[in-house]
């Protein structure tokens, strides 16, 4: 009975991962195309200022989230009073955070970040944050019920709205405000499509505020919230440090390179993490170790070729697509930053595993270790060697976080290092023929002139992808078979 339940849950989790990854990647591809168009109408320094304003406001959002989303998603048996209490605390904290950012926006922009131009964009982004928080609790309730298809489609609708609006307004000459208005519209679409999907009685049934329930929420959520804040800071605060060290223009180039390099981690690794939390929670404790090893194996098979391949084609992306000359210096930054796609998702899976056991304080410590490593690495290496060395410091920091997370799981649950690391080796080795194939295509096409934009990149991607599939079936045979079997079972179950 347990085995059958585990198999059914695995199929549901895989199907959920397929939906979240497919829709996430689809919307991300369109978003990437939109970014390519935006770069032709928005200068790097303006892009850097909008990004800095967004980072500051999103920091306020994470600081005031109280771990509510993770608490709801990982507790399938919460009563309505608990959900209502959590909702009230979440929104009260959000209003306080919004007011604080608005009142202190000038000191933050001028003195802390050193980018006065971001003041123009902060009010609109603050309003977007206010609207977006209305969507958050219903979205977490849908995730708790493992309605991944519904969540994925609604999130994709918001991202598509953002892409279409930002591109259209940028073409019309709105500059950085095109991004602000698009962010507002995305928030509205999320609210309009998600809130009606959940009965109001599930989260807005008026109930007394309980001190006991507040203690339960805060004991679980606040340490995890600090961990989530640190995770956000690890992916965004480096933008502020880069602007502070090298100015808004370099900050804009770095932000673009980061967004491209982060696609494998954020659109695949984090989506898998969203699926794993409720999936691990529904497994028996003795089954979770095997599930962790299996998740890491499949993650490596999916993520590693995306990250390594992105680094291999980085020079071609910036020289053979829609980017104008002002953005071409971001190419070397992208090549260096792509390394984070290999190590960052490992930390996500291990964090999902520890979260189910309630080790929120451990997660918090690990996340802040990562933040310190990133900020310190950028500041130290950037001061010594410049921008590329600062980018290298980011990849090293994510590697340190992944190794520290592995050590914690070994110490707490007795899972040997090699049992967790061994499944990662073969998928990584299978990426080497892919890199060789990409370089061979680039060398072979050097003498070809006057090719349409995108042809060189398309050839490198197609040949590199085929090379990885062939090498993975030979070098990572067991992992490939496992992935194909799970995919077939998920499709069969869906039919």
TrEMBL record:
<feature type="transmembrane region" description="Helical">
    <location>
        <begin position="457"/>
        <end position="476"/>
    </location>
</feature>
<dbReference type="Pfam" id="PF13440">
    <property type="entry name" value="Polysacc_synt_3"/>
</dbReference>
<feature type="transmembrane region" description="Helical">
    <location>
        <begin position="110"/>
        <end position="131"/>
    </location>
</feature>
<feature type="transmembrane region" description="Helical">
    <location>
        <begin position="12"/>
        <end position="38"/>
    </location>
</feature>
<feature type="transmembrane region" description="Helical">
    <location>
        <begin position="387"/>
        <end position="408"/>
    </location>
</feature>
<feature type="transmembrane region" description="Helical">
    <location>
        <begin position="428"/>
        <end position="445"/>
    </location>
</feature>
<comment type="similarity">
    <text>Belongs to the polysaccharide synthase family.</text>
</comment>
<feature type="transmembrane region" description="Helical">
    <location>
        <begin position="50"/>
        <end position="71"/>
    </location>
</feature>
<keyword id="KW-0472">Membrane</keyword>
<dbReference type="GO" id="GO:0005886">
    <property type="term" value="C:plasma membrane"/>
</dbReference>
<keyword id="KW-1003">Cell membrane</keyword>
<feature type="transmembrane region" description="Helical">
    <location>
        <begin position="330"/>
        <end position="350"/>
    </location>
</feature>
<feature type="transmembrane region" description="Helical">
    <location>
        <begin position="362"/>
        <end position="381"/>
    </location>
</feature>
<protein>
    <submittedName>
        <fullName>Oligosaccharyltransferase</fullName>
    </submittedName>
</protein>
<feature type="transmembrane region" description="Helical">
    <location>
        <begin position="83"/>
        <end position="104"/>
    </location>
</feature>
<feature type="transmembrane region" description="Helical">
    <location>
        <begin position="292"/>
        <end position="318"/>
    </location>
</feature>
<dbReference type="InterPro" id="IPR050833">
    <property type="entry name" value="Poly_Biosynth_Transport"/>
</dbReference>
<keyword id="KW-1133">Transmembrane helix</keyword>
<keyword id="KW-0812">Transmembrane</keyword>
């Amino acid at each position: 009975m347990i085995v059958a339940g585990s198999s059914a849950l695995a199929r549901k989790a895989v199907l959920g991962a397929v939906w979240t990854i497919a829709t996430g990647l689809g919307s991300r591809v369109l978003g990437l195309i939109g970014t390519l168009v935006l770069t032709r109408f928005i200068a790097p320094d303006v892009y850097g200022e909008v990004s800095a304003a967004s980072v500051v406001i999103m920091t306020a959002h994470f600081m005031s989230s109280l771990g509510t989303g993770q608490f709801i998603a990982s507790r399938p048996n919460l009563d309505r009073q608990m959900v209502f209490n959590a909702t009230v605390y979440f929104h009260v904290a959000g209003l306080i955070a919004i007011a604080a950012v608005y009142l202190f926006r000038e000191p933050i922009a001028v003195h802390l970040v050193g980018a006065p131009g971001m003041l123009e964009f902060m009010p609109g982004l603050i309003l977007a944050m206010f609207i977006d928080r209305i969507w958050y609790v219903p979205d977490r309730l849908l995730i708790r019920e493992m309605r991944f298809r519904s969540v994925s489609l609604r999130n994709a609708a918001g991202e598509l709205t953002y892409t279409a609006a930002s591109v259209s307004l940028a073409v019309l000459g709105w500059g950085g405000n095109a991004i602000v208005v698009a962010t507002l519209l995305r928030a509205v679409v999320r609210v309009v499509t998600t809130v009606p999907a959940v009965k109001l009685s599930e989260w807005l049934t008026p109930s007394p505020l309980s001190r006991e329930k507040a203690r339960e929420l805060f004991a679980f959520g606040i340490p995890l919230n600090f961990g989530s804040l640190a995770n956000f800071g690890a992916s965004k605060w480096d933008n502020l440090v880069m602007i502070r060290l090298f100015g808004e223009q370099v900050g804009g180039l770095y932000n673009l390179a980061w967004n491209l390099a982060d696609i494998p981690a954020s659109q695949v690794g984090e989506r898998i993490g969203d699926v794993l939390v409720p999936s691990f929670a529904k497994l028996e404790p003795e089954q979770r170790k095997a599930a962790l090893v299996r998740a890491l194996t499949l993650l490596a098979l999916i993520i590693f070729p995306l990250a390594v391949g992105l680094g291999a084609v980085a020079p071609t992306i910036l020289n053979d697509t829609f980017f104008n000359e002002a953005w071409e210096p971001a190419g070397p930054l992208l090549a260096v930053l792509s390394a984070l796609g290999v190590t960052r998702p490992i930390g996500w899976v291990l964090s999902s595993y520890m979260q189910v056991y309630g080790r929120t304080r451990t997660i918090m410590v690990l996340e802040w270790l990562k933040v310190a490593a990133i900020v310190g690495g950028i500041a130290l290496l950037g001061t010594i060697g410049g921008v590329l060395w600062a980018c290298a410091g980011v990849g090293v920091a994510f590697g340190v976080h992944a190794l520290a997370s592995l050590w914690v799981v070994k110490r707490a649950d007795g899972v040997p290092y090699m049992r967790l690391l061994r499944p990662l080796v073969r998928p990584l080795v299978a990426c080497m023929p892919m890199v060789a194939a990409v370089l061979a295509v680039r060398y072979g096409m050097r003498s070809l002139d006057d090719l349409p934009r995108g042809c060189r990149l398309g050839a490198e991607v197609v040949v590199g992808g085929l090379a990885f599939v062939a090498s993975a079936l030979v070098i990572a045979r067991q992992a490939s078979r496992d992935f194909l079997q799970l995919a077939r079972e998920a499709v069969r179950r869906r039919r």
